[in-house]
């Protein structure tokens, strides 16, 4: 089979491989306990001004 060739046998082989995958024990979701805070930061105008300054410096 040449590079990049993909025939029906290869498709079936890959299909068998993916159908046999079992989730591991580390795939379970963790419970997060705590708080999350978001900082909105500068206003859009301040960020655009900072971008313009960075662009003119280079």
Write the layout of secondary structure elements.
Layout: H1 8-19, H2 44-57
Short structural summary:
With 58 residues, this protein is mainly alpha-helical.
Helix percent reads: 40-55%
Rg calculated over all Cα atoms: 25 Å
Look at the structure and give the mean pLDDT.
79
What structural class do the secondary elements suggest? mainly alpha
> How far apart are the termini?
50 Å
What oligomeric state best describes the polypeptide chains here? single chain
Q: What is the general shape?
A: flat
Q: How many beta-strand segments?
A: 0
Major β-sheet profile? none
Number of helices: 2
The helix-strand sequence is HH
Spans of 5+ residues with little confidence (pLDDT < 50)? none
Q: What is the beta-strand fraction? A: under 5%
Could you name the key traits of this structure?
58 residues; 45% helix
Walkthrough of the structure:
The protein has helices at residues 8-19, 44-57. The protein is built from 2 helices and no strands. With 58 residues, it is mainly alpha-helical.
């Amino acid at each position: 089979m040449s590079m990049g060739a993909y025939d029906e046998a290869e498709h079936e082989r890959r299909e068998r491989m993916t159908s046999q995958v079992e989730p591991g024990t580390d795939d379970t979701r963790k419970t997060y306990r705590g708080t999350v805070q978001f900082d909105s930061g500068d206003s859009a105008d301040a960020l655009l001004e900072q971008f313009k300054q960075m662009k003119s410096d280079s």
